[in-house]
Amino acid sequence: MDLLQSVSDRRLFLAGVAGGLALLSGCGKAAKSGTQVVLGDQVHLLETKLSAAGQLKDLPYGISWGNFPGAAPLLEALNAGAVDTAPAGDLPIILAAAAGCRLKIAAVNKGSPKSMAIIVPRGSPMHSVEDLVGKTVIVSSARGSISHFLLLEALREKGLPPSSVKIGYMLPNDAAAAFATGQIAAWAIFGTYQARAEADGARILRDGTGIGPGYSAITVSERALADPHKRAAIADILSRARAANTWCIENPDAYARLYARQTGMDPAIARVVAAREKPGLSPPDAEFVTALQSASDRFYETYKVLPHRVDVASLVVPDLLRA
């Protein structure tokens, strides 16, 4: 397949779902209550935090993990009922909701704007956003992602329309391999994938500072919330996740070491990822709703990414994680 060809969102979703579902088997913990919750994850981040902080011990319910390479396939899995929860960036959640995914936002975290960026390989002649004109930029992982919003806003900041570049979409794992072999000229990416590329010499043209609401969130399927036993279990998991995030803030080196061991990542890169995180966790509040509504409206009104306006306030469950 031509790497410059845009890949449809649906194909990205289905490929990621298949990959993530394969990881569900053999990942469970026995349930004492008979309740079983399937926790979605991206690159083992949530699982690593909970494990590091000792928050997976003595659970009164069973859990299984479904690990996915990006938000798009993870949210599709949530919609399909394959997972009960899904941590994801704010704007992919909005795109999923606009596409009919029955989800609610239960907990949020304001992250570092430096954990997403438009990058180019070592030795690239491009040194600014303006240099992207006429070039192909790969966005991971899909249309409507935080990386897509970053690219569009970075272009807008310089007075450039989206049509000034060619945009392609690839899942992060595939894009990482192509970027490493020089097949991608510019890449809008985030998190661990960004840190790995930077360690290999990639340069940042523009990071997320001053762009977008910058939240991540834990979403829950409406189906899971309708089950009182699962709802109680998920509320407990959210409380444990908040405690785990506090542990990570207080023990950054230990967290980085465990993350490196669990993911196979170079310890130096793991430390960069850990340092960029601001892993607080809180209930979604009015400030969150206002910020995300503004970005969502931009996606709908200015960029025509959404099929209709999304009412962010209607997606929020403010009482599942106690303040």
Give descriptors for this structure.
alpha/beta; D-Maltodextrin-Binding Protein, domain 2; five-stranded mixed β-sheet; disordered N terminus
Summarize the structure.
The protein has 323 residues and is α/β, with parallel strands linked by helices.
Description:
This protein is α/β, with parallel strands linked by helices and 323 residues long. The chain contains twelve helices and ten strands. It folds into two domains: 9-112 and 213-315, D-Maltodextrin-Binding Protein, domain 2 (3-Layer(aba) Sandwich), CATH 3.40.190.10; 113-207, 3-Layer(aba) Sandwich (D-Maltodextrin-Binding Protein, domain 2). 42% of the residues lie in helices and 18% in strands. Helix 2 packs across helix 10 and helix 7 (191-199) crosses helix 11. The N and C termini lie far apart (48 Å).
Question: How is the secondary structure organized here?
Answer:
Layout: H1 9-21, E1 36-42, H2 45-52, E2 62-68, H3 71-80, E3 85-89, H4 90-98, E4 103-110, E5 116-120, E6 136-139, H5 146-157, E7 166-169, H6 172-180, E8 186-190, H7 191-199, E9 203-207, E10 215-221, H8 222-225, H9 228-250, H10 252-263, H11 267-276, H12 286-302
Parallel strand pairs: 1-2, 6-7, 6-8
Antiparallel strand pairs: 3-10, 4-10, 5-8, 5-9
